[in-house]
Every structure is written in structure tokens, then in C-alpha cells.
């Protein structure tokens, strides 16, 4: 692999104008596509084949588009001591309902004071009107949402407390904003400090932005042909930006090292791609395996997220091994700071001093203590993980109109009113069957659960029974209630019976995701384990890497539960709301974190393996490899942490806990697992760390360290048309 990549790097730097133009053409092409072909995204989750999802499709057929459309609940509360049914307040309610009925895009607004279908609290202090849209929540436009906000402002002038909630008010995740800008600024600062060269830092950042822009624009273009989740493009941007910067960092760092060894610009760029590029390809492959593996769990929206993010990683790798060497050919020795141009690497002080080498010596000399402290610290942080709860229902951020509306509904109507359960009776005998089912449910369900009379459709082919639980959608008793209803009613006399509604969909999706997580984890860990065995030709090094990842994921989940579920330091990170973790978050976090953790394992341990292969004793090989790779890994982890963390305070509510878990997970993995636990464990293993059973020695050698290039150094004859600048002092 190293030889092949060396040739690719050499071709890229020699034909740098052609390579650069090709990438720019690709960028312009997908940019035009994003601007002209983009479509709407979805912000609801469902799994085909689940009972609740099947019922929603049947409801759409039997009751029309409006039954499956978006809604907004506008809650009106009377001043303290008054009733919403008082004449003056009733007149104000009628005025508000009239305004709501004329909202752009709405097909109507219910009158909560209608005697036939009242929506008034028992104490008559509050009421709510349901505004219906004939489209899915993702198809409600920003202008229509703004019209709702304007109507609320107008309605509040009449003396009533007026707030609104509903999926139609949920804004899809947007690409572009303060989050991305903040992450890019921090990355530029870290790169400038690492390189001590603004030229190299700017070039590194520019190539990463080109790659992530192509990936993001491609996904936006794709929305014109298929419906993607609103979080898919922003996840791809977040991940693509982080790994794009890091992969370029590894190659540029090696390029600078080869320049100082006296190689020409072309030879240094080719060697950097052949050595560091091999590690980039291997690391990128582990991330792609982890992300593409999401498709095996059989959940369509997870498959699209995984494949979209994996495609972004592929683009980042291709940029790193083609566009980066091409740009390096343009900037040449300016990738080095002025004071190092013409100063060979052998002239640097190398007497064993320095923080990095001192840290490596400390960890390897006190390996047992270092390992115990690292494991214990992460284990303590992981404790909250064991109380993690998941849900598909997204809580509104505190201080928003959605949160205030939810509080009024919970206190005046009960927590179950906002998320009712729907029992669909479908078939030729649906009407008589619905009456029997309604009576049976009213007798058997817990006290406080309200079972409303069945509502048949126009031709009598289906009927709906609405059930108002006494508990909220996130309560375990509501989950038990759904299962109790499903176990107690069954199709009879030619009618099929389904339990659906947003709460039932959430329960079904969460259950499917929880069941899929162990299978997914086993598959991804197994595939990555095989890849690491091929890379390091060792069994114990991959075991150390995988066990370190389990510590990372436990601590990341523990910290996320403490902040986003328990509410610890929630204000400090602008968590918005606290409660159960979004059910799709754990499996996404596992996939992304595993790939990135293996990145650091490859980059760090490959240098240790290289030193060991050159004959260094086990402990000295660890110290040497650590000293060479740790500074770059630290810079890469700092950049990745900054990119992910920037999405927490200002990000979309779906993205916030995922970005937080990725940020703290990267910090735990890079600075505790890879900088303490891994070198300590490898020191304790000694020579056995690099042991490979005889019956596995037939396995192919991937040559991540570029050993083939060292055994047979390729000659790079300068082309007449590309004279190379000498590495001289400025």
C-alpha cells in the first residue's frame, strides 16, 4: 500500500495544477447542484415494518392527508382567578381561533370551546386549539413558522397567556453558522501553533474545507432526489471537517519532516503520502467501516446517516492523498517556518529532554500505576451511563414558547394530553369492533387513563380510538401502557387493530435501536479488530485498542447522561433541555467514536511498531514512537474536540448531545486512553505485545509505516518542467 500511495502522491504533486483544477471543478459542480436541485429534509423518525409506522400509513389512506400532517397546539390560559370560559375570555379565544384559521398553509384551527369537541382543562383555566397543516413537519416553511410566531405575539395583546407547541414548529438542522465558524477559528489557531507557519496552517484548513464543502453540497443536492433526515448533512459536516483537518495535519507534518531530512519538495510530498498517507487510508477505512456498518441494523434513517457520513470520510481521505500533496507542491519549503528552512532535522536538540518524552518515560516507568489511574478515572466518569434512558421525543429548550406551552398542558390537562395514543381499527367490521375495543380498554386500563369514543372514517372502513395516558411520553409507565394495550386487543371479526401515535412510534424506534446496538457494536468491533491485526500483525495491540475504546465510550456516555439527562452543568454548555437521551444518539456516537478512536490507535501505535521493527527494545520503542506521534495526535485531538464542541452551545437540539459526547469522547480517548492507558498497557505486555501466532503469519502485510519505501527507497527524478526549490534558509 505504501508503494502505491507513494506513486499517487508523486503523480499528484507533479500534476498539481491538473489535480487542483479537478477538485475545484468538483466543488463548483456540487455547489451548483446544491443551489438548484436541493429539496426538503425530514425531522421525524420512523422504521418501516413496525406496528406504529404501518398504522400511520393506513391512517393516511383511510382518513386522508390531514390525519398524517403536521400540527401546532396553541395553548391559551386565562389570568389567575379567571376561567377561560368567562364571556370576555371566550370572545378572545374565538378571535384567536379565527386568526389561527387564516395562517398561511394551515387547513384549519379547532375551536376549543366547541361543545361537540371541547379542549378545555378540568379547572377551566386553559384551552388549546389544534392548527392543522396538510403536509409533513419538514415541509412546513420558515415563512409559515414565522407567521405562527407573529400570530402568537398578536394574540397575547388580549390578556390571555398564549403559547404554542408541536412538530410543525421544529426547525430542521441548518448547515452554516456560528458553530462551524467557531470550530474553524479554533482549528486555525491550533494549526498555526503546531506548524509555526500561517502558510501551512492556512493550506491545511483550506483543503479540509474543500473536502467538507464537496461532501455537504453533495448531500444537499441529494435531498432533491430523496428525503434525508435534517441531521444528516450537519453530522456529515461536523465529522468531515474534523477528520479532514486531522488527515491533512498528519500528511503535512510528515512532509515537513521529509523536507528537513533533505528531500526535494516532490520527493517529500510523495514520501509523506506513502507513509503518513497509508496511516490516513487505514484510519479512514476504520471510520468508514464503523459508519457504513450502521446500515446492517436495518433502520433506514440510520443507514442513510452512516453512508452519508462515510462518503464524507472517503472524500476527506481522497483530498488528503491527492489535493494536499498538490498544494504542498505549490507552497514548497514555505510549509516550514523561516527559522527551520535549511536547518536539518539532525541538528535539533535530541538529548531526551522535553515534556512529551518526559511524559512517555513517566508513564512507562510507572506503568501499573498509570494504567490503574487512567482506568479508574474513566470508570468513575462512566457511572451515570448505567442510568441512561432513551426516547425519540425531543424536549423543547427551556425558555421557548414550546416549553412554556408544554408546561401549561402538563399542569392543566395532564402530561399525557400532548402525546395521546391512537388505536386504529381497520377492516369491514371496524365500527362495531371499535365500540367493543373501547369498552374493553376503559375497563382494563389504569385509573386516570382516558379512553375517548371511537371516531369512524367516512365510509366506515376504519375507526380511531384516542387514549390519553395519565403519564407523559417519557415515563416508563407509558411504555408499559403501550405494551399492555397491544397484549390486550387483537384483530377479530375481520378487523385489524394497531396502536400508534407519536408516543408509540417513539417506543418502537427506541426499542429497535436498543436491540440493534449490541449487534452493531459486535460487528464493527470485529471488523476493525481484523483490520488492526493486519495493520500491526499482532493480536494483543488490537485487544488493547478495543478495550481502550470501551473505556472511552463508557466515559463519553456517562458524561453525556450527567449533563443532558441529570442536568449537571447543563447551563454551562447551553444544553437547552434535560431528560432522556435521544434514542438514535447512542448508536451514532458508538459508530463515530469507534472510528476516531481507532484513528489515534493507528497513528500512535504505528510509530511505536516502526521503532520496534527497527530493533528498539520494547519500552524504548514505545517512548520513541510516542515522542514522534504524540504531538501530532494531541494537535489533531484538540482540533477535533474544538470542532465537535463548537456545535454544542449553538447547535440543533438533536445535534447537541451527540456533539457533546463526541467532544468529551475524543478528549477522554486521546488524552487518557491513548496518552496514558495504551503506552502503559503495551509496556506491561513487553515483547508479547507484537506477538502473532504462527498460524496467522500468512496474513497480508498492509505496511502502514512505509517499510517497503525504506527497504527500497524510490528515486524521484526531477522533471524538467518542475524545477524544485532547494531547502535553504531564507
TrEMBL record:
Primary localization: membrane
TM ranges: 175-195, 202-222, 234-255, 267-294, 306-331, 367-386, 517-536, 543-568, 580-598, 629-648, 660-685
Keyword Transmembrane: yes
Compartments where found: Cell membrane
Domain (SSD) ranges: 198-330
InterPro entries named among the record's database cross-references: MMPL_dom, Mycobact_MmpL, SSD
PROSITE patterns named in the record: SSD
Membrane topology designation: Multi-pass membrane protein
Keywords on record: Cell membrane, Membrane, Transmembrane, Transmembrane helix
Pfam families associated with the record: MMPL (PF03176)
Assigned protein family: Belongs to the resistance-nodulation-cell division (RND) (TC 2.A.6) family. MmpL subfamily.
Listed name of the protein: MMPL family transporter
Organism encoding this protein: Actinoplanes hulinensis
Amino acid at each position: 500500500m505504501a508503494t502505491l500511495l507513494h506513486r499517487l502522491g508523486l503523480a499528484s504533486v507533479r500534476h498539481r495544477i491538473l489535480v487542483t483544477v479537478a477538485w475545484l471543478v468538483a466543488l463548483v459542480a456540487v455547489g451548483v447542484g446544491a443551489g438548484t436541485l436541493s429539496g426538503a429534509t425530514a425531522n421525524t423518525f420512523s422504521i418501516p415494518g413496525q406496528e406504529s409506522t404501518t398504522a400511520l400509513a393506513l391512517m393516511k389512506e383511510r382518513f386522508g392527508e390531514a390525519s398524517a400532517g403536521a400540527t401546532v397546539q396553541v395553548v391559551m390560559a386565562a389570568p389567575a382567578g379567571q376561567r377561560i370560559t368567562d364571556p370576555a375570555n371566550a370572545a378572545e379565544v374565538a378571535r384567536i381561533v379565527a386568526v389561527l384559521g387564516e395562517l398561511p398553509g394551515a387547513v384549519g384551527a379547532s375551536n376549543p370551546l366547541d361543545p361537540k369537541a371541547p379542549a378545555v382543562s378540568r379547572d377551566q383555566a386553559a384551552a388549546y386549539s389544534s392548527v392543522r397543516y396538510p403536509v409533513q413537519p419538514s415541509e412546513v416553511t420558515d415563512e409559515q413558522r414565522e407567521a405562527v410566531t407573529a400570530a402568537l405575539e398578536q394574540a397575547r395583546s388580549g390578556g390571555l397567556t398564549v403559547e404554542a407547541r408541536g412538530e410543525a414548529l421544529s426547525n430542521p438542522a441548518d448547515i452554516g453558522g456560528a458553530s462551524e465558524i467557531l470550530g474553524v477559528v479554533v482549528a486555525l489557531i491550533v494549526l498555526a501553533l503546531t506548524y509555526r507557519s500561517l502558510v501551512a496552517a492556512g493550506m491545511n484548513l483550506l483543503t479540509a474545507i474543500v473536502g467538507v464543502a464537496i461532501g455537504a453540497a453533495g448531500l444537499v443536492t441529494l435531498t432533491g432526489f430523496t428525503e434525508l433526515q435534517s441531521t444528516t448533512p450537519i453530522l456529515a459536516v461536523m465529522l468531515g471537517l474534523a477528520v479532514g483537518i486531522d488527515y491533512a495535519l498528519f500528511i503535512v507534518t510528515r512532509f515537513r519532516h521529509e523536507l528537513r531530512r533533505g528531500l526535494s519538495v516532490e520527493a517529500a510530498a510523495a514520501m509523506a503520502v506513502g507513509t503518513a498517507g497509508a496511516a490516513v487510508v487505514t484510519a479512514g477505512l476504520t471510520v468508514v467501516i464503523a459508519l457504513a456498518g450502521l446500515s446492517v441494523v436495518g433502520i433506514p434513517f440510520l443507514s442513510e446517516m452512516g453512508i452519508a457520513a462515510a462518503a464524507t470520510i472517503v472524500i476527506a481521505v481522497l483530498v488528503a492523498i491527492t489535493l494536499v500533496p498538490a498544494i504542498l507542491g505549490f507552497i514548497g519549503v514555505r510549509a516550514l517556518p523561516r527559522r527551520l528552512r535549511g536547518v536539518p532535522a539532525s541538528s535539533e536538540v535530541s538529548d531526551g529532554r522535553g515534556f512529551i518524552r518526559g511524559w512517555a518515560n513517566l508513564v512507562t516507568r510507572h506503568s501499573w500505576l498509570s494504567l490503574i489511574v487512567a482506568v479508574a478515572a474513566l470508570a468513575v466518569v462512566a457511572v451515570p451511563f448505567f442510568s441512561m434512558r432513551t426516547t425519540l421525543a425531543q424536549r423543547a429548550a427551556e425558555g421557548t414558547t414550546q416549553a412554556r406551552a408544554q408546561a401549561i398542558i402538563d399542569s392543566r390537562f395532564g402530561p399525557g394530553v400532548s402525546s395521546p395514543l391512537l388505536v386504529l381499527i381497520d377492516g369491514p367490521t371496524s365500527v362495531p369492533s371499535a365500540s367493543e375495543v373501547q369498552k374493553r380498554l376503559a375497563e382494563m386500563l389504569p385509573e386516570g387513563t382516558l379512553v375517548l369514543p371511537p371516531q369512524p372514517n367516512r365510509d366506515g372502513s376504519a375507526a380511531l380510538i384516542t387514549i390519553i395516558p395519565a403519564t407523559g411520553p417519557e415515563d416508563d409507565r407509558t411504555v408499559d401502557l403501550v405494551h399492555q394495550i397491544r397484549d390486550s386487543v387483537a384483530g377479530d371479526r375481520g378487523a385489524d387493530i394497531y396502536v400508534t401515535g407519536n408516543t408509540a412510534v417513539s417506543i418502537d424506534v427506541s426499542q429497535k435501536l436498543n436491540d440493534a446496538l449490541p449487534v452493531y457494536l459486535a460487528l464493527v468491533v470485529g471488523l476493525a479488530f481484523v483490520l488492526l491485526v493486519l495493520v500491526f500483525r499482532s493480536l494483543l495491540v488490537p485487544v488493547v485498542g478495543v478495550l481502550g475504546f470501551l473505556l472511552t465510550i463508557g466515559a463519553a456516555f456517562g458524561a453525556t447522561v450527567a449533563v443532558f439527562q441529570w442536568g449537571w452543568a447543563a447551563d454551562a454548555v447551553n444544553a437547552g433541555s434535560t431528560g432522556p437521551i435521544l434514542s438514535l444518539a447512542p448508536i451514532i456516537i458508538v459508530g463515530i467514536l469507534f472510528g476516531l478512536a481507532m484513528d489515534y490507535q493507528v497513528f500512535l501505535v504505528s510509530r511505536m511498531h516502526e521503532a520496534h521493527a527497527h530493533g528498539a527494545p520494547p519500552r524504548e520503542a514505545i517512548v520513541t514512537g510516542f515522542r514522534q506521534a504524540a504531538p501530532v495526535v494531541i494537535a489533531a485531538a484538540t482540533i477535533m474536540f474544538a470542532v465537535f464542541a463548537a456545535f454544542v452551545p449553538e447547535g440543533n437540539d438533536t445535534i447537541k448531545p451527540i456533539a457533546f459526547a463526541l467532544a468529551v469522547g475524543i478528549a477522554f480517548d486521546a488524552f487518557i486512553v491513548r496518552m496514558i492507558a495504551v503506552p502503559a498497557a503495551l509496556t506491561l505486555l513487553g515483547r508479547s505485545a507484537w506477538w502473532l501466532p504462527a498460524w496467522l503469519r500468512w496474513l497480508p502485510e498492509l505496511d502502514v509505516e512505509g517499510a517497503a519505501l525504506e527497504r527500497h527507497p524510490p528515486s524521484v527524478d526531477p522533471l524538467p518542467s518542475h524545477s524544485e526549490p532547494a531547502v535553504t534558509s531564507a
